[in-house]
Design brief:
- Two copies of one chain form a homodimer.
- By secondary structure, chain A is of the alpha+beta class.
- Chain A has eight helices and eleven strands.
- In chain A, strand 10 and strand 11 form a beta hairpin.
- The longest helix of chain A has 18 residues.
- The relative contact order of chain A is 0.16.
């Protein structure tokens, strides 16, 4: 039972499934618990919401005991404490394979949406891209493995960006794919300079197409550009300008030369994946308003 | 993104997993979609809450296509429409076995809890008990199979009961087990007359121990008994008085003769299962109140 909130409530639900989103090893159970919460916090970050509470439904093999549950909880609570989000309840059930489904809620006066972008808005991404994808490969460097297993949801940046951005999305499916989601929702095309993508360990193609970075992609109106960049610098949030919205299609350029879209542009994810089903119209049940 | 609510928000999450909570067949995918929502609505009913919105996370085999998803949705939406609860979002992922995790939210000014019971309160149950358990057996009668696959969450009764009851719980684990949950939370024992249990197809032992009836168990203060019974009769809600709270233990009687508790009293459920983790203390993050 949760108290009423004055702001709007942003809710999201996302699952991590063994064999689809992780394997143990290389993931530890602590990593699994952490990442299950992180992917949901990343959704709240993209809405510019303050994390408030989450529910955690765990389906796990019968062989799991207190030790395994504590390991999951330990990884999850380390992140929950750091982000000041409260566990409000949950469910345990048995299953053949381990999966965790978390529902997270945050509040905000004015949520960032995917659909608010306009032609001319400048595109920024946080952090560096492609490292999480590299972290899946055998012999990957520690920094890449860490980015894959312990992504840092950009909650503080989302809160900052909500004062400036017209639209936002978190990068779970890869920049190219998630940019398309934002463009489709905003009803505009975009132009991205692949030579400007912020990279640390990954090559350009991996930065463009690799998923699970859980960085933020932000659309900033040109009139807010200077103030946004100043605020990011003051808050030590690393953001990189990579292009702008506009036109009828997604175009990728290296310098001034158009390049083809990444291969398999529509098919990165292991499964069909939606996050923004439209709510149904308000209920007509005769009931007291509460 | 959901509008602010004036009442308290009651949230619950529960999963149904293939091979644990259902098999297909005998369940159709329509049944699975229906029941995944029904078990969550039953939790809201037990809190006396108005159903408002739900999120639906589906993990499904890669072989599933539009036809299978439509079948799940069809069963789910038939119940959602009837109970006027809106789908607000969700997630799809692949998995080896089908599972659905739903998070449902309702609102109420004064939620019914498990913990509000007092010694002397009268115990009532809705409907008839044990039929859902019978419905799992080969050759079960249609009414029992229907109760197993299409349980009717007692939302209207929960709303009615919230004006009278001191405590409530829905019967997912079986009467004996769920009564224990209510008694533990309320800090009291209870006395139940097994010869008074409302039965249709089931014998006494199955009515007492069989799970998944998704009926409500209500504790009604004696001063509210007459008004509660009148309100139930007026609303055509079938409830049966089966005992009362009090004493230090759970006691089961046939007439005036004590009988032993049902076998396996602690072990009905396929997996460890909790629903009421206490929320953490309020956040101390320095953030604007919204």
């Amino acid at each position: 039972v949760l108290p009423p909130t004055r702001g709007k409530l942003c809710v999201t639900t996302d699952s991590v499934v063994e064999g689809v989103h992780f394997r143990t090893p290389p993931f530890t159970l602590e990593d699994v618990g952490y990442k299950a919460l992180a992917v949901n916090l990343s959704d709240l970050a993209a809405m510019g919401a303050y994390p408030r509470w989450f529910l955690c439904a765990i389906a796990m093999p019968r062989a799991f005991g207190a030790r395994e549950v504590k390991a999951l909880a330990s990884g999850m609570s380390s992140l929950a404490r750091g982000q000041r989000i409260a566990l409000a309840g949950g469910n345990f059930t048995s299953a053949r394979e381990l999966s965790i489904t978390i529902t997270a809620a945050g509040t905000t006066r004015k949520p960032l949406l995917r659909s608010g972008g306009h032609p001319g808005d400048l595109l920024y991404v946080s952090g560096t891209l492609g490292d999480a994808r590299l972290g899946l490969e055998p012999g990957a460097r520690l920094a890449a493995r860490r980015k894959q297993r312990r992504p840092q949801p950009r909650v503080d940046l989302g809160l900052l960006a909500s004062r400036f951005a017209s639209a936002a999305i978190d990068l779970s499916d890869g920049l190219a794919q998630d940019l398309r989601h934002l463009c489709d929702a905003s009803g505009t095309g975009a132009e991205v300079r692949v030579d400007l993508l912020p990279r640390s360990l990954a090559d350009e193609a991996t930065a463009l197409a690799g998923g699970e970075d859980y960085e933020l992609l932000l659309a900033i109106p040109p009139t807010r550009q200077a103030a946004f960049e100043r605020a990011c610098a003051a808050a030590r949030e690393k953001v990189t300008r990579i292009g702008h919205l506009g036109g009828a299609h997604l175009r990728f350029l290296r310098g001034t030369h158009p390049i083809p879209p990444p291969p398999g542009f529509d098919h990165f994810r292991p499964a069909v994946h939606f996050k923004s089903a439209p709510p149904r119209p308000p209920s007509k049940r005769a009931r007291p308003r509460i």
